[in-house]
């Protein structure tokens, strides 16, 4: 039987073509993608296109758009064997991370991809990314989907969505998964590392959880900065601090006093690293002990994109009983090492 894939087009470079009169990039009608890539007619699966009314630059994709994508997947979950989300590259890792938490009990492939060059460009990477993503989205064995999680495919690499980050705006090989191995690579054959794939708990039925709090602030620490401004934002619900190395910050009483004041005002403080690879280890150095003193929460080796979207999903979510810290430090979707 032919597998059915729903292609959700949100916007981004992959759906652009050059206006040869102005030289500007303009979105084309993605419903006509089969004319742009006639090879799609050779695929051994049926592809249905569902486009956003207005294609969006990925910098305009946020919580409301994540909910729209999740709703489309939820509404058509029983009608399709897999889902492919075409997305601009700049914020694709945020969307992949958010969807991984919103789509509970997922047992079908949800693949995100995009491109660095427009689909009509002579040297485009769009065609390979699109065609191979469709293969991954329709990959079944013994009538069972091989991939049952949110993944990101780009330049021959399949990555766990909530482990991915964009590290290059220049090269086709634009994404990394620094703290988790690749789920697969495409070459002559489509390779999958099956032992690395995520599987939802057996008792968890598929549902879409749309909860996304926007009471989250992300702040990157830099040498010499003053923390006095933190004391002026006492209404912050969750503050994610991106600090040095394995979890260090300025070692002075002023730092501790400001952070303690925030904690007394009820702010949850999450700590993630500025390093691309590795994670947080409170107490490894003296300059990280302050976080133990104030009861901060370790972001482990989560990417910043993942920590932000996970905090948005978990904070004040009625589906999670208990304290925020308890659920934030739980490995919910394979997003952190334990």
TrEMBL record:
Gene3D superfamilies with a match to the protein in the record: 3.40.50.40, L-asparaginase, N-terminal domain
InterPro entries registered for this protein in UniProt: Asp/glu_Ase-like_sf, Asparaginase/glutaminase-like, Asparaginase/glutaminase_AS1, Asparaginase/glutaminase_AS2, Asparaginase_C, L-asparaginase_C, L-asparaginase_I, L-asparaginase_N
Cited SUPFAM superfamilies: Glutaminase/Asparaginase (SSF53774)
A Pfam family the protein falls into: Asparaginase_C
Binding residue positions for substrate: 58, 89-90
Domain Asparaginase/glutaminase C-terminal: 220-317
One GO biological process term: amino acid metabolic process
Catalytic residues as annotated in Swiss-Prot or TrEMBL: 13, 89
Residue span(s) of domain L-asparaginase N-terminal: 4-195
Superkingdom of origin: Bacteria
GO molecular function, one term: asparaginase activity
Transmembrane residue ranges: none
Family the UniProt entry places it in: Belongs to the asparaginase 1 family.
Protein name in the entry: Asparaginase
Record organism: Chryseobacterium lacus
């Amino acid at each position: 039987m032919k597998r059915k894939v729903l292609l959700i087009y949100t916007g981004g470079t992959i759906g652009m073509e050059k206006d040869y009169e102005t030289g500007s990039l303009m979105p084309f009608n993605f419903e006509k993608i089969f004319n742009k890539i006639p090879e799609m007619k050779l695929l051994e699966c049926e592809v249905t296109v569902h486009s956003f009314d207005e294609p969006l630059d990925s910098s305009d994709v946020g919580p409301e758009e994540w909910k729209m994508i999740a709703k489309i997947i939820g509404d058509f979950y029983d009608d399709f064997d897999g889902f492919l989300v075409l997305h601009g590259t700049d914020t694709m890792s945020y969307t992949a991370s958010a969807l991984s938490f919103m789509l509970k009990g997922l047992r079908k492939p949800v693949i995100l991809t995009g491109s660095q060059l427009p689909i009509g460009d002579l040297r485009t990477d769009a065609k390979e990314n699109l065609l191979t993503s469709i293969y991954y989205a329709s990959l079944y064995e013994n009538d069972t989907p091989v991939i049952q999680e949110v993944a990101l495919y780009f330049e021959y690499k399949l990555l766990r969505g909530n482990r991915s980050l964009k590290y290059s705006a220049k090269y086709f090989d634009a994404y990394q998964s620094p703290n988790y191995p690749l789920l697969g690579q495409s070459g002559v054959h489509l390779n999958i590392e099956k032992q690395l794939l995520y599987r939802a708990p057996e008792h968890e039925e598929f549902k879409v959880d749309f909860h996304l709090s926007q009471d989250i602030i992300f702040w990157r620490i830099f040498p010499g900065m003053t923390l006095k401004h933190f004391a002026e934002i006492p209404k912050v619900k969750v503050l994610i601090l991106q600090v040095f190395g394995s979890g260090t910050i300025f070692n002075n009483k002023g730092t501790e006093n400001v952070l303690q004041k925030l904690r007394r005002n009820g702010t949850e403080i999450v700590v993630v690293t500025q390093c691309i690879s590795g994670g947080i280890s409170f107490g490894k150095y003296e300059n990280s002990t302050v976080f133990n003193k104030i009861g901060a929460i370790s972001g482990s080796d989560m990417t910043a994109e993942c920590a932000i979207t996970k905090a948005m999903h978990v904070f004040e979510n009625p589906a999670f009983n208990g304290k925020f810290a308890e659920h934030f430090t739980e490995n919910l979707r394979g997003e952190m090492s334990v």
